[in-house]
Write a structure and sequence with these properties.
The chain is α/β, with parallel strands linked by helices. 23% of the residues lie in helices and 32% in strands. The chain folds into three domains: 265 residues, Alpha-Beta Complex (Spore Coat Polysaccharide Biosynthesis Protein SpsA, Chain A); 72 residues, no CATH class; 105 residues, Jelly Rolls (Sandwich). It is built from eleven helices and 28 strands. The protein has a six-stranded antiparallel sheet with strand order 18-19-20-27-22-25, with no helix packed on it. A five-stranded mixed barrel has the order 5-8-6-7-11. Helix 3 crosses helix 7.
Length: 480
């Protein structure tokens, strides 16, 4: 029996869940529901007997987030392919298939977005088992969700024949249907012959490669060349950017699935949501007797069917007399919207980007492979940051052309290098780094190290870094 290789797609920006999801740290890595991120929950759902180690396709900015979250979830031996740029799902799936052809050619591939929620993992595993026979027989198998409402935010799958009572397995798929209007969605719901398109697929490596050869041969040429030029980078594999750019940016639905004649679908009646907007997030959260979903320091007074989320402990969110309202508060942004307009949040983010509003894409804190930092205060010629370095974390050996720095340790122990001098700093101890000095900090302890950094100088941008050594091999630039 061939093993199933889970292929998790971990790109995208999730702008409809702004302000909690942003380009710099999108929704799949956040804890929207429960104590795990959506990415971690997806990876854990696809582990165990019958599954091989996962293959992750992600972007360069998320490579260390991916490995850190997999490690924290106890998922080992994953392969991480780094896309030079996101080009939709078709090139990503083809890259994964091409990689597996060279490493595990007899495998079945389970393509799964990493930002969906499926509460009943056992039921989902049973559905996958039902689709294996069809996949082994050369079918392109997709998984359709039994619809519970006339949803207009999802695409649909039209069944070739309605499954008989008690049937378990894949059935013929007639066609893919675009997101409908309300009346059409209601009609499809009533017919009983349509499923929501979950964007989850199961097929053999050889079957999907043959489908791409038939329906998108130009993409095969570009992606194969890009994979041939892939280079290892620490524990990652970087796809060649120049040839990758030749592949069309298109979804696998459009590129292959809507053209193929060997399609099958497994109906899935368990819980599922793509958490595509705040309305769907509220639907998945626990609710009080008035239908309100609350998280964090949030209080609802005389409210009905509303979502109130406080994502920062320092901010208290109070709703009074609200009905069908979304309120999501972070440290630096607040969203207030009518629930019926949840899908339009993306439009607001686009407008913020046009105005170069930092909150459109960036958080106050910035994650790095060694930890994180946030800006506490900023003015003319100065900036104050809080820096958290995880145990064993090491910043690059670096220098700056335009700024000097003062470090004050407030928790843990810092090992500090300034030119040729190395010293240990404990809580309430400080050190000055002159402009141009070669320096580094690291955390030799077993608990997070926290320090306050005061920068002064004529230019304080993150790109004023000259890296001389870096254990994370990030190269030059703000993040490398």
């Amino acid at each position: 029996m061939p093993q199933i290789v889970p292929v998790l797609l971990a790109g995208g920006s999730g702008t409809r869940l702004w302000p909690l999801s942003r380009k710099s740290y999108p929704k799949q890595f956040t804890r929207l529901i429960g104590d795990q991120s959506l990415f971690q929950a997806s990876a854990l759902r696809l582990t165990g007997p019958g599954y091989d180690a996962p293959l992750i396709v992600t972007g360069t900015d998320f490579r260390f987030v991916v490995t850190e979250q997999l490690h924290d979830a106890g998922v080992r031996n994953a392969t991480v392919l780094i896309e030079p740029e996101g080009r939709n799902t078709a090139p990503a799936v083809l890259a994964a298939a091409t990689w597996l052809q060279n490493h595990t050619p007899d495998a079945l591939m389970l393509i799964a977005p990493s930002d969906h929620i499926i509460p009943d993992a056992a039921a989902f595993a049973a559905a996958i088992e039902q689709g294996k026979t069809a996949a082994e027989e050369g079918k392109l198998v997709t998984f359709g969700i039994n619809p519970t409402r006339p949803e207009t935010a999802y695409g649909y799958l039209e069944l070739g024949a309605r499954p008989s009572e008690g049937d378990a397995g894949a059935v013929a798929l007639k066609r893919f249907v675009e997101k409908p209007d309300r009346a059409t969605a209601q009609s499809m719901l009533e017919s009983g012959n349509y499923l929501w398109n979950a964007g989850i697929f199961l097929f053999s490596v050889s079957t999907i490669l043959a489908a791409f050869e038939q329906h998108a041969p130009e993409m095969v040429t570009a992606v194969r060349e890009a994979l041939d030029k892939t280079k290892p980078d620490l524990d990652f594999y970087r796809i060649d950017p120049s040839t990758w750019a030749k592949a069309d940016s298109i979804s696998i639905d459009y590129a292959v699935m809507e053209k193929a004649d060997n399609l099958a679908v497994v109906p899935f009646g368990g819980g599922w949501s793509d958490l595509g907007d705040w309305y769907s997030v509220g639907h998945e959260m626990p609710q009080d007797d008035a239908g309100n979903a609350l998280k964090g320091s949030a209080t609802a007074l005389d409210c009905q069917d509303s979502l109130l989320r406080a994502e920062d402990d320092g901010i208290e969110v109070v709703g009074l007399g609200l009905k069908d309202t979304l309120v999501v508060s972070t440290r630096d942004a607040v969203l207030v919207a009518d629930k019926s307009r949840a899908q339009e949040v993306k439009t607001i983010v686009d407008q913020l980007k046009q105005r170069d509003v930092r909150q459109a894409t960036e958080f106050p804190w910035d994650r790095r492979p060694w930890g994180m930092f946030e800006t506490l205060a900023q003015g003319d010629r100065f900036q104050v940051k809080r820096i958290v370095v995880k145990p064993g974390g090491i910043l690059s050996l670096q220098s700056h052309h335009h700024r000097a720095e003062h470090w004050i340790v407030v928790a843990g122990t810092a090992k500090v290098t300034i030119n040729s001098e190395v010293k240990l700093l404990s809580e309430n101890e400080s050190v000055y780094i002159p402009l141009g000095a070669v320096h580094r900090m690291e955390n030799p302890g077993k608990v997070p190290m926290v320090l306050i950094e005061v920068q002064t100088g004529s230019y304080l941008g993150e790109d004023d870094i000259v890296r001389l050594e870096d254990v994370y091999d990030r190269g030059q630039g703000a993040k490398g």
